[in-house]
Design brief:
Number of strands: 17
Radius of gyration: 35 Å
Oligomer: single chain
Largest sheet: 5 strands, antiparallel
Strand content: 15-25%
Number of helices: 27
Helix content: 55-70%
Shape: elongated
Length: 692
């Protein structure tokens, strides 16, 4: 906020103009908060992030309006008294002059956010509140710029020092003095500029293709969730002892402040787990050693714990993974097929191949094993001969094994169920259960072994199904590499090294699946948005050539945005893609402002020479475009610098993409676009040559 104030004041050198401009921020944020309340969206990290990213952009429309009012008032003040217009007429004319441009520019920014509202799943729940807060705040700032700002300008600016001085401030003059000769030198060199721009775009696309892919940026939650799973059928005491060994290894690390462990969970618990599984919550306080080094050391220590699969995650990330794929890891390799034994055999092969992929850690196959069961096979003919039904025999077995509530016992103010069942020793004894006496309708009592075969058997502890098909899962986390790269290599290894019989197939789930789905959604809707941007630009300028020239800002902005991706770790995530969406809208605004002013000079100020139109248009729009770009960029600096801090994992990559992309797009917009417009634009030399 302080940086935004400094930029506005440095260029305008007017306390009044600065206050009028900055008033857009609180008014826009209040409207955004009221709108969120109206639709049931609360204030949280994501909505605050959306408003923080919008903070600099909220003053953009007001800056453009105030700068134009000040310039027109200054021009009017140096006119002869007889030819001067009234202050109201000047302010109205100055506002009307740029009103269409800022309305179309803001509409384009709102349009580019449309794909965000079509995201589904976790990414939609995360990004849609951010997008809503950003768009509503931006639309509110437009409303303030065309209503409140002109009124305050009419009241406060006519007698201000900046208007009375009849010239711009020193910062604005310095920018124009440095820019003018550079612009003159480049205006006639459109071929060289076009060639260099094309080379730059190709290099940018190559750098983007080389970047890694991920679903969400890695969270820094300040804690860990460690899952310890041993063999099914392991007794509670043994499982507890094994998890205790893992807990002791954790507590031996200086970064570990405390641990909390759960071994097994009740069957009716929302996150039920068997007694052979434990979950350890670990609170961290990082010291000299980095988090990656700590995790690598822990994995090395855990490799010495025999008989257990140990997966390291984080509380929020762990639950996101669980919601996405039903596993507690980033990647879920799902093997489908009809035979459980064959699934386990192939699953072990897949586990071996995935474990050899660089960057794949915590690789483990879903624990499935043969465990002892008591099988009771009904003899339907014998049951019918005794006048019984399957239901009658089943109820008797259920009463003996599990118990049946027959009454309530009251002791003081407390009451308890009275349950009838076999003693525990008898329930575990096949012979005792075989002699269970079952009453027939005639009053006779028949032992269970006369009605059914009772025997010990073995069977799978778990049968996983998805879409009615049996499946087994090999899970893996990712460390030191991007998610898409690990999945691509794992997929290649499985295809080459694992021979799947007919009826068996592999699917990849988890974060990778969600990343692919979200990327495809954004890609297709993004193409529709680009078409929508072209239509809006065509409506604004009534020229397809000018619309295409403005849209050149998109690849020019891409260069800086890709640099931001590499600065944030070289991994393109959904957060980075949303950053590009925001960047494209802001970059298009700069082109709209420049081309709209060239149109104004041609149509309303009678500038007939094409070169002069373009030169004046660029120079006169240099200051507002530079101010809006700097205000937006500097407002993002705190977010960009917070990279790696807890709570900034999504906003920081977005801010870096916007910050770097805005830098490149603004510079190239003021250098490349004027030269190309002079050659190809609606009011460039092509038109001038055509009209003689």
């Amino acid at each position: 906020m302080i940086l935004v104030v400094a930029i506005v004041f440095a260029f305008l050198l007017s306390t009044r103009a600065t206050l009028i401009t900055l008033l857009a921020i609180p008014l826009s944020l209040v409207v955004a908060i009221l709108a969120m309340k109206a639709v049931g969206i609360g204030i949280n990290t994501m909505t605050l992030g959306g408003m923080a990213i919008a903070l600099g952009a909220l003053v953009d429309d007001a800056i453009i309006v105030v700068e134009n009012i000040v310039r027109r008032l200054r021009e009017n003040s140096v006119q002869a008294p007889a030819s001067r217009r009234s202050v109201a007429a000047v302010v109205y004319g100055a506002t009307r002059e740029i009103q269409g441009a800022i309305v179309f520019a803001t509409a384009i920014i709102a349009l580019v956010f449309v794909p965000v509202f079509f995201l589904s799943g976790i990414e939609g729940r995360l990004m849609q509140p951010l997008g809503f807060a950003y768009v509503v705040a931006l639309l509110a700032s437009l409303l303030v710029a065309v209503t409140v700002t002109p009124v305050l300008g009419h009241w406060l600016l006519p007698h201000s020092k900046i208007v009375a001085a009849a010239r711009e401030g020193s910062v604005a003059r310095t920018f124009k003095r440095l820019y003018a000769p550079l612009l003159e030198a480049l205006l006639e060199r459109w071929r060289s500029i076009a060639l260099l721009s094309a080379v730059g775009v190709v290099a940018t696309l190559l750098a983007l293709a080389a970047a890694g892919r991920a679903f969400l940026p890695e969270f820094n939650e300040g804690s860990l969730t460690v899952n310890v799973v041993t063999l099914p059928g392991t007794e509670l005491a043994e499982s507890d002892a094994l998890a205790g060994r893992v807990e002791a290894l954790l507590l031996a690390q200086p970064e570990v402040v405390a641990t909390a462990r759960r071994t097994g969970r009740a069957e009716l618990d929302p996150h039920a787990q068997e007694i052979y599984a434990s979950e350890i919550e670990v609170t961290l306080s990082m010291r000299e050693r980095g988090k990656e080094a700590l995790l690598a050391h822990l994995r090395d220590e855990f490799s010495g714990v025999a008989g257990a699969n140990i997966v390291i995650g984080q509380p929020i990330s762990h639950r996101i993974d669980h919601m996405l794929s039903g596993t507690r890891a980033n990647i879920a390799v799902k093997l489908f097929g009809p035979d459980l034994h064959e699934l386990r055999r192939l699953g072990r092969q897949i586990e071996t191949q995935v474990a050899e992929v660089p960057g794949a850690v915590d690789v483990a196959m879903e624990q499935q094993a043969e465990v002892p069961f008591l099988a009771i096979v009904f003899d339907r003919a014998a049951i019918a001969r005794h006048g019984l039904s399957i239901r009658d025999v089943g109820r008797a077995i259920e009463t003996a094994a599990l118990g049946t509530v027959v009454s309530r016992v009251i002791e003081g103010e407390a009451s308890f169920d009275l349950v009838v069942r076999y003693p525990e020793a008898a329930r575990e004894n096949v012979e005792a259960l075989s002699t269970l006496a079952i009453a027939t309708p005639t009053g006779a009592r028949v032992p269970l072994h006369a009605l059914a075969e009772v025997r010990r058997d073995r069977g799978p502890n778990l049968i996983g199904r998805e879409n009615a098909a049996r499946r087994i899962v090999v899970m893996a986390n990712v460390a030191g590499r991007d998610l898409a790269g690990v999945v691509a290599e794992a997929r290649q290894r499985i295809a080459q090294e694992v021979s799947l019989p007919p009826g068996y197939h592999v699917e990849f789930g988890g974060q990778f699946e969600s990343a692919e789905s979200a990327s495809q959604t954004l890609l297709w809707l993004g193409a529709a948005v680009v078409a929508g941007i072209f239509l809006l630009l065509y409506l604004a300028f009534q020229s397809s050539r000018d619309a295409c020239l403005v849209m050149l800002n998109l690849p020019l902005a891409l260069a800086g945005g890709v640099a931001g991706v590499w600065l944030s770790g070289g991994v393109l995530s959904i957060a980075s893609i949303i950053g590009f969406i925001t960047l494209f809208g802001i970059a298009t605004r700069n082109g709209v402002m420049l081309v709209a002013h060239i149109h104004h000079l041609a149509r309303h100020e009678g500038v007939r020479d094409a070169r002069e139109r373009v030169r004046r248009g660029a120079i006169e729009r240099l200051i507002p475009i530079t101010m809006t770009a700097l205000a937006t960029a500097l407002a993002l600096v705190p977010l960009a610098l917070s990279a790696g801090e807890p709570g900034s994992e999504i906003q920081a990559p977005m801010a870096l993409v916007i910050l770097c992309g805005l830098t490149s797009s603004t510079a190239l917009n003021m250098l490349v676009l004027p030269a190309l417009y002079l050659r190809f634009g609606e009011f460039g030399t092509r038109r001038q040559d055509a009209h003689g």
